[in-house]
Each structure stands twice: as C-alpha cells, then as structure tokens.
Amino acid sequence: MASAAEQLAANLNMSSFSKATELKKRIWFTLGALIVYRLGTYIPVPGVDATVMGQLLAQHQGGILGMFDMFTGGALGRMAVFALNIMPYISASIIIQLLSTALPSMEAMKKEGEAGRKKLNEYTRYLTVFIALFQAYGIAVGLENMTAHGASAVVAPGMFFIASCVVTLVGGTMFLMWLGEQITSRGVGNGISLIIFAGIVANLPHALASLFELGRTGALSPIFVVIFLVLAIAVIGFIVFMEQAQRRVVIQYPKRQVGNRIFGGDSTHMPLKVNTAGVIPPIFASSVLLIPVTISGFMSGHSMPGWLSVLGQQLGQGQPLYMLFYAAMILFFSYFYAAITFNPEETAENLRKQGGFIPGIRPGANTATYFDRILSRLTAIGALYLVVVCLLPQILISKYNVPFYFGGTSLIIIVSVTIDTVTQIQSHLVAHQYSGLIRKQRNRGSRSGIQGGVRRR
C-alpha cells in the first residue's frame, strides 16, 4: 500500500511538473544564470599570468585561501573576473544586519515593511562596493609582489594594472550580486546560496579524483579513503536529519459560536527548526575570516607588516586560533540570525490577537518567555551541531591534506541549499495544483450555470 501510494504521488508530481510551465521557465532561468556564472569563472583578469597564479595558489592550497578558492568555484586559482565571488556582498549583509539591531534608526527602517527593506538593500549594495574595492585593491597590490620560480604573476605591473584589476574584480562581484537577485526573483531558490553551491559542486569531480589519486599513489591509505568516504556519507545523512529536525509547539484555539454554528476548537502546531539559522552561520563565519587574510595570503613576508604576517599564519587552516575564531563566530551568528528571524514577543502578541494559546501557558508575556526559552535551547543545539560538523572535518583536512570540498562547511552548504531548492520546487508544484483545481471548479460552475439557464428556457 505504501509503495503504491508513493508511486501515485510520484506520478502526480511528474504530471504536475509537465504542466507547470511557469515552474519550468523558472528552472531554465536558474540553470542559464548558473551557466553564465560558471563561464565567468574562466574569464581571466587582464594582465595576470594564469600559470604563475596557479602555482602560487597551490602553495597555499592547505590554507584559508584554499577554502576561498572553493567558495569561488576555482575562480581565484584562475584569477578570473569572479575571483572575489559573492563574499563582499555577504560581508556587507552581515554588517548591515548588525547595524539594524544596534542603531534605532535602522531598526525602525527594518520595521517599515517593503520600503524599509528596499532602503536596507540599497545600503547593502553601497557597502558591498566599498568592501569589494578594498579587497580588490589588496589583491591587485599583492599580485604585483607575487613570483613563482622567478616569474612574476603580473605581466606589466603599474597603476594601469591596479586600476584595471580593481575595476574588473569589483564589476564581477556586482554582476554576481545582481545575478543572485535575479535568480531569487525570477528563478528557483536563493540566488546567493545557489551561486556558492554551484561553485562547490562544480569542482567536486576534481576533488574526488584528487582523493582517489592520493590513495593510488600511497599518500593516503586505501582503507582510509574508504573510511573517509563512508564518514562523508554519514555526515551528509546527519546533516539532512538535523536540517529537517523540528520542535513542534502545540497551539490551541478556543471554540466560538456564531449563530447556530460553532467554529474553532482546533489544535495545531507551530514548527520551530532546530537549526533556525540554516547555512548562514558557516558562510558568515567563513566570510569574516577571509577578510583579514585575503591580503596577507597574497603578499610576501617582506612586503607587509609583521603583525599581519603572524595573523595570516595563526589563521591558517587547522591552527588553534582559526578553530577558536571559527567556532566562536558560528555560535555568535547562530544566535544572532535566530534572534532577527524569530521575535518571541511579536509571535506571542499575534497568537493573542488570533485567540490562540499554548496549553498550560498564559497568553502574553508568559508565552513570549516560553518561546524565548525554547528558541534558546534549540539554537544551542543547532549551533553545536554546526560547530561539530564544520570543525571535525577541518582536522582531517589539515592532518591528511584531504580536499576542502569534503569539509563540513561545504557539505552543509550543499545539503541545505539542495533541501531549500527542492522545497521551493514542491511549493510551486502544490500552488500549480491548487490553481488548476480552482480553474476546473470555476469551469464546472460556469457550465452548470449555462445548463441551468438552458433548462429554465
């Protein structure tokens, strides 16, 4: 029976998908936009020797720049126009969200609805340009000081190269920001997350080949390779379980009588996810960690201050300071994002206005306190889950030189974005089914009205 029901549901979904022309347009638009993004990761910045750049990045592959190259889909290693990727936009979003909770004027703007949201998005774009300019200038200056085997990474150093490099990199970031917004509004899924997702997934085959090559050459034990792959599958399953885990809060609505009919008296539930913040904390934490070491990772030791060189070494992959900062920022962003996405006082007030209540909890302040206590505990579990999944693979990466694509951060991004995109596709299919049923009902009503009029005549 269960298998027959599942088969029937699958057939209905396939039938709905074949008729959902709007959803197919959205999917094709999303695929086309991601193809454009991948093509941009192969367009080089003018004046950079790609061979020298690849050699230089290979020297830093085990460091944080290797993770940066993973997020950019290999664009950094090829020094393409999308080398900065979408990270400046993510950093700007972090700063604007922090300011919107700290400054009363920006907090009031956030409560203004659509107009306030557009204003905050405008501020985020301006700040993205500033951060991208800062990072692009640091990369351009650093490229002029980089050499490999006596060859310079820049063909013709000078102000013209710096200006062209900055304009190209900033333009690439702004284009990706626009492309991500277009995917969100006209495609399927979150555009910014899908761009990062596409960059990681695109290099997964190469990462698998590198892992098998390490096993073939004896650099890694074949048994260790098998165990690592099994562990990666287990981690993916654990991530799927935690991303789907919920705490369901029972909501009761009282009965009310209108005339001779009784309404209400129903019991429903409010789902609260264990990992409320989703993939945001690891991405935010990685983005913040990349800012102070972007320049130091490209500059040679004699061309930068000593404290910056020490900072770059201490924030290297697998270093204790890196682990500490990474875990602390994941915890911070988990609580921060949960606080800005779920307001216990507002939720309790809305329940009170609708007549709903939690059994055993008085409406109003007590309900808000109850929600706050549940959210704090769930966020603690979700944050610890993110820390464990993100940090344990880092130990394997730093100790056994396993590719970053099997790290916890990349796996969380892949699983979370996949779940979110599939959920949105299912929502579009359900909406299409309901619209089809409504159209059929209207057509039946109009036909019955015509037939009734004919009979009366």
Automatic annotation (TrEMBL):
Record carries keyword Membrane: yes
SUPFAM superfamilies in UniProt: Preprotein translocase SecY subunit
Pfam families referenced in this protein's UniProt entry, alphabetically: SecY
GO terms for biological process, alphabetical: intracellular protein transmembrane transport; protein targeting; protein transport by the Sec complex
Transmembrane segments: 27-45, 79-103, 123-143, 155-179, 191-212, 218-241, 279-301, 321-342, 378-396, 402-419
Any one annotated GO CC term: plasma membrane
Gene3D superfamilies membership: SecY subunit domain
Record's bilayer topology term: Multi-pass membrane protein
Compartment list: Cell membrane; Membrane
Record key words, sorted: Cell membrane, Membrane, Protein transport, Translocation, Transmembrane, Transmembrane helix, Transport
InterPro entries named among the record's database cross-references: SecY, SecY/SEC61-alpha, SecY_CS, SecY_dom_sf
Function: The central subunit of the protein translocation channel SecYEG. Consists of two halves formed by TMs 1-5 and 6-10. These two domains form a lateral gate at the front which open onto the bilayer between TMs 2 and 7, and are clamped together by SecE at the back. The channel is closed by both a pore ring composed of hydrophobic SecY resides and a short helix (helix 2A) on the extracellular side of the membrane which forms a plug. The plug probably moves laterally to allow the channel to open. The ring and the pore may move independently.
The family this protein is said to belong to: Belongs to the SecY/SEC61-alpha family.
Subunit comment: Component of the Sec protein translocase complex. Heterotrimer consisting of SecY, SecE and SecG subunits. The heterotrimers can form oligomers, although 1 heterotrimer is thought to be able to translocate proteins. Interacts with the ribosome. Interacts with SecDF, and other proteins may be involved. Interacts with SecA.
Protein name: Protein translocase subunit SecY
